[in-house]
Amino acid sequence: MSESSRRDTRLAAVLSLTIRLTPNVRPDFGMLASFEHEAKSATGIRWLKMVNNHPEFRKEWGRSTHSSRLSKPVPSTPSGLHFGRKSPAALILIIRTFLTADSLSQSVWQSPLMGITPRGRSIRQGCSPMKRLTFATLSLLACGLVSDPATLYAQESTLFQDAPTAQPTPVTDTLDARLRVLEQEIEILKSRPVPEAKKPVDPLGMTGKWNNGIEFGSNNKAFKIHIGGRTQIDAVFWNNDPSFNNTGGDTDQDSVNFRRGRLRVDGTMYEIVDFAAEYDFVNEFNVVAGSPVLENNFAVVPAVTDLWVNFKEVPYIGNLKVGNFKDPIGMEHLTSSRYLEFMERSPIQDLFTGSFNNGFTPGIQAWDTWDEENGTWATGFFKNNTNIFSNGMGDGEYNWTSRVTYTPIYEGEGETLVHLGVSGSIREPNNNFDPTRESLRYRSRPSLRNGAPSGLNPNFVDTGNFFTTQQDMLGLELAANYGSFSFQSELMNSWTQNTVPTVGPLTGVNVGTGYVKTWYVEGLYFLTGEHREYERKQGVFGRVKPHENFHWSKGIGAWQIGARYTRTDLNDTGINGGQLQDVTLGLNWFLNPNMKIQTNYVWSDGVAPTIGPTRGLNGTAHGVGTRLAIDF
Question: What are the φ and ψ backbone dihedral angles of 451, each rounded to 5 degrees?
């Protein structure tokens, strides 16, 4: 490294160090007083002479007008001279002088040392604080920033050959001055208020905040509890049409009802255990079993939805969940009802993934993410129940369900992504129809519900009960985000083994394998520029966050339009449940992340079954529904 590079490196280091130390520097009057003798001596003059003739000093300040008062200029550094050897007294004096210039006594300012300043001005009268700092820095550079000042006096003759011998500072004066300063500092310290001792932080102390609900967390992050819920109130209007005549329930009646009303507590304990307890208070059943379903013949009963414990950081697995929750099949099924873009899910939910149990079932599941959260996997064993109370009774009747997802494209915060998913389930059907044999029933309600979850809702397609020994399902998922536009589609296939119809000419005959399917495709677009949030740990879409929340005087929230087409075919050898297609058009207004108003128009066209009792939609139906939803 050249001498110029070394000098620049030292200058950068000194500047950085000096600027950082400046706010905390306090004048040391005792130190300055003890060095005043040296400041007036030839030694102090020699040091400033060297600084005055240093090239960096000349470049910044120009030649001092006081140079005539000094002896001859300092020569270039002779060969073999250790440039960094300096007097600790002069070095400290230079630092203290220019960093605490406004606090020095008048006697010090009037000393010969203080009189020699850049461009002939006194420091108090002519130099700004920044120039004083610059001069101090250049002085340090001239002296050399090293930590071994012991040999200065041994080399003074080399540096300043014409200088007289400096007089030593009287010891008595130095000790008296330091004693006076110490006494002053003691008095200053006594006058300062004593800061209160900081109270120790309780690691289990809780602080609260709003996080899409009321949330409390411990200071050590080991505990967290969230209190929330959701309320959805619907108004539905169907056209009066004979096509509803055999659909059951309230057929084409208009209605105003609560679709969901849930309270929830979830959180974390001891860092590795998550939990959730959610109860739905909007479930209805017939008061008198077997009687016609009428408005005055049902009661409301609470039922559990999410009621589980999840162990995190399990070796070789990741997560292990036990309790009542959604089994891992289907993207739409696993998407929370809080985040649905239409008022109701497609017929896949009613027919296959959530029939008769609201989509929740008791079981145990291992799950985790993979490839840096680009993918998810889950597999579990569940009791195949057909009621809303999470009770599963009967020998066997288990199911093994698994799902794998992957996002080959994921950019930013999910504004651009492609989602692929596949899921499957092997199930032993429940024997609720005949205690001696396993049975199954496919049925689906409309895309607008004119009644709370109960028998009040009509069925647009329905196979009735039939016997089978096993049900196998395979689901395929495709979804994408491209800015404000999103796309989603699913196909669900279902096979039944040893299928035996209970109605029609093949009643009691084993017709072998039965096959039915349904699928949907939907597109959505935000008029206000948002995008659908994607939950990478679950492989589903999540909460919408408007760019600006709605307010009467400012902010319009987020606005979204969407369309969905679904098609269902429940007709196969020995199975006759009808066919259905419908189109849903939607307008969503997200007032804020926790509140939305949805409006849907639904056109449905059904072909009723031709075998067995008359049932299902037979013709075309039109309906309009709106929902006010709030969740926290």
Answer: 175, 150
Following DSSP, what letter does each residue of 433-454 receive, concatenated?
Answer: SBTTB-EEEEEE--SS-SSSSS
Name the residue among 275, 368, 363 with its Cα closest to residue 318.
Answer: 368
Joined together, the tokens standing for residue 605 give 């066209």
Quick one: pLDDT at residue 401?
A: 98
Q: How many Å apart are CA 608 and CA 243, to the nearest integer?
A: 9
- How far, in Å, are 134, 204, 206, 314, 445 from residue 7 at the CA level? 15, 55, 55, 58, 84
SS3 string, 179-210, reads: HHHHHHHHHHHHHCCCCCCCCCCCCCCEEEEE
**Residues sharing a CB contact under 8 Å with residue 274, sequence separation 6 or more, in sequence order:** 266, 267, 268, 309, 310, 312
Residues 233/239/240/244 CA torsion (nearest 10 deg): -80
Residues of the chain whose pLDDT is less than 70?
A: 1-174, 289-294, 452-454
Task: Please state, in angstroms and rounded to a whole number, the distance separating the CA atoms of residues 263 and 185.
Answer: 64
Q: SS in 3 state form for 22-43? A: HHHCCCCHHHHHHCHHHHHCHH
Contact 209, 215 (CB under 8 A): yes
Q: Give the length of the chain.
A: 632
Strand partners, 599: 587, 626
Return d(Cα 527, Cα 544) in angstroms, integer: 13
CA dihedral 357, 363, 369, 375 (to 10 degrees): -40
In the DSSP assignment, the letter for residue 151 is T
pTM above 0.90, yes or no: no
Q: What is the C-alpha separation between 234 and 600, in angstroms, rounded?
A: 11
SS3 assignment for 487-551: EEEEEEEEEEECCECCCCCCCCCCCCCEEEEEEEEEEEEECCCCCCCEECCCCEECCCCCCCCCC
CB half-sphere exposure, 150, CA atoms < 13 A: 1
Residue from 522, 540, 544 nearest 447 by CA:
522
Strand, coil or helix: what is 369? Answer: strand
The candidate with the shortest Cα–Cα distance to 389, out of 353, 366, 360, 418, is: 360
